[in-house]
Amino acid sequence: MRLHHTLKSLCVLVPLLFLFSGAAPEGKMSLEKTATPQQLVNAIRRHADTLSEEYLNDPKRFEDNLIRDKITAKGGAIEALAQALEQAKNAPAEVHALAIRSAGHQIATAETFQQAEDGLKNVIANLSAQQKTGNFQELTWGEVGDLPNQMEEINYLYQGLRRTVRRSRDPEADALDAMTVAILAFPTEANENYAFDDAEIAEWKKYSRQMHDDFLAIAKAMREEDTDKARELYKNAPRSCAACHDKFREE
Ligand code: HEC
User: Fold this and answer.
1) Same domain (yes/no): 119, 177
2) Percentage of residues of the chain with pLDDT beyond 90
3) Same domain, 159 and 230
4) Domain that holds residue 67
5) Is 156 near ligand 1, meaning CB less than 6 Å away?
6) How far is the CA of 63 from the centre of ligand 1 (A)?
7) Cα of 39 to ligand 1 centre, how many Å?
8) Ligand 1 lined by 151 (C-beta under 6 Å)
9) N vs C: which end of the chain shows fewer Cβ within 10 Å?
10) How many domains does the chain fold into?
11) Higher-confidence position of 170 and 19
């Protein structure tokens, strides 16, 4: 009886201890530690600016396959950033995260320039929504976006960081790119249908978390303007990509 009671109270106490210490159980990614709501908003704005200034400024560019891939990949990143914002506590009241996620999805799946442009307008409008209108579904991370598209964006951000980890005119802004890769690790981790059994699922999650931790560390070093550290971390960052691709990516 006694033992039973002790066990019971332990079951209550241990999770409570985690709750109060604010510590995530080891190995788990925590959204709160990955990004503040304001950083998420800034990263969405950064992606929206890139789209309007570089890729959606001329309808003809949508005919170019490479540009179109970049547009849809950026849409996928906006989707994930908005999902993170939806789950964040204390998100700015005027931001309509679910509407932005839906608009990001429209860009991610756009087949015409017009669809992508409309999606972008909706992203921007819902960053300062007067009223939160529309009916949007709650989704889990596994239901947000699709992995190959997210991988494209992870790759573009990774390539872009090659220069900015060394030299950045605006470290705070450029660090948002590394942070966005860490955010994209959440849908990656949830996409465990690439794995076939429990052991593989554990491995899949491990590589996703490694990508998360590595890119979050890069973001931190960049914000602190510790260029030597950022460069060193960047050199090691492809380890999670390579390990996961070796195991799970079909040739
Ligand atoms: C947890 C596993 C995992 C991690 C970590 C990972 N990838 Fe991937 N990646 C995949 C899988 C699986 C595919 C194949 C997706 C498919 O074709 O269905 C893929 C595909 C890709 C593609 C091709 C996308 C396309 O258009 O089909 C690129 C580019 C890519 N990854 C880049 C990266 C980079 C860069 C990193 C590290 C910064 C990374 N990946 C980390 C699992 C991972």
Assistant:
1) no
2) 84
3) yes
4) 34-127
5) no
6) 25
7) 25
8) yes
9) C
10) 2
11) 170
Ligand 1, atom 37, lies closest to the CA of 241
Q: Tell me which residue has its CA closest to atom 35 in ligand 1.
A: 155
> Are residues 82 and 168 both part of a single domain?
no
Cα of 8 vs centre of ligand 1, distance in Å, is: 43
Query: How confident is the model at residue 130, as a pLDDT?
Result: 84
The structure tokens 């950045």 sit at 168
- Answer yes or no: do 46 and 112 share one domain: yes
CATH of the domain at 243: 1.20.120.10
Task: Report phi then psi at 161, rounded to 5.
Answer: -70, -20
**1 CA distance to ligand 1 centroid (A)?**
52
pLDDT band at 1 (very low <50, low <70, confident <90, very high): very low
Region 198-226: mean pLDDT is 97
Q: Are residues 152 and 102 part of one domain? A: no
Q: Same structural domain for residues 117 and 41?
A: yes
Please give the Cα distance from 12 to 9 (Å, whole number): 5
pTM, rounded to two decimals: 0.90
The per-residue pLDDT for 168 is 92
Q: Which of 97, 127, 157 is the C-terminal boundary of a domain?
A: 127
Distance of alpha carbon 172 from the chain centroid = 17
Residue 21 has a pLDDT of 42
Instruction: Give pLDDT tens digits for 78-101.
Output: 999 999 999 998 999 999 999 999
DSSP symbol at 142: G
Of all protein residues, whose CA lies closest to atom 25 belonging to ligand 1?
148
| Ligand 1 centroid, distance to 207 Cα (angstroms) | 11
84 in a structural domain? yes
Cα-to-chain-centroid distance, residue 116? 20
For residues 161 and 170, what is the distance between their CA atoms, to the nearest angstrom?
A: 12
